[in-house]
Amino acid sequence: MDYSTLMLVLAFLFSCLWIIFFHQNQNKNPKFSNLQPGPLPFSIIGNILEVGENPHQSLSKLSKTYGSLMTIKLGSITTIVISSPDLAKEELQKHNLALSGRTVLHTLQTLDHHKVSVVFLDPSLQWKTLRRACITKIFSSSQLDSTLNLRLSKLQEMLEYVNECCRKSETLDIGELAFTTGIFTNL
Q1: pTM of the prediction?
Q2: By CB distance 3.0 to 4.6 Å, which of 12, 38, 41, 151 could disulfide with 46?
């Protein structure tokens, strides 16, 4: 084995040991000490192996050991699991603002869509204003009734296109159909 290969192997082993040591010490960090009890996570992957293929059954078994309020780590994300309906109702009523936050994907952050989206905004005056506008202007029964004829005609066009593709034995591109229908509906 030449010198450069040996150095690469040693650097790899050193970095693996450093990552494992760092993550083990991170789990013992005081900022995690006030969390609810839960199974001890593995380095890097957390408790993903314990959750398994049937998460509802695995979390039910874990709740018998750690209680109806427990902490698990899914990779690097710390997750609080509430398995009691009464406790979930109580927590959602007491801490609704803290629990209403959502993870905003990087794809939405690139063009700042998360700053004007009812789905990703935190409960604030802007969120309440957008929500009120959606309820009264977009999803009200009078607005939906006013566009009923347009929606029915677009549905009829879609059905005709699907029937034509079936008659010609052509493949149907659902994505293209939804895209063109969505674009021409707004005209």
Answers
A1: 0.48
A2: 41
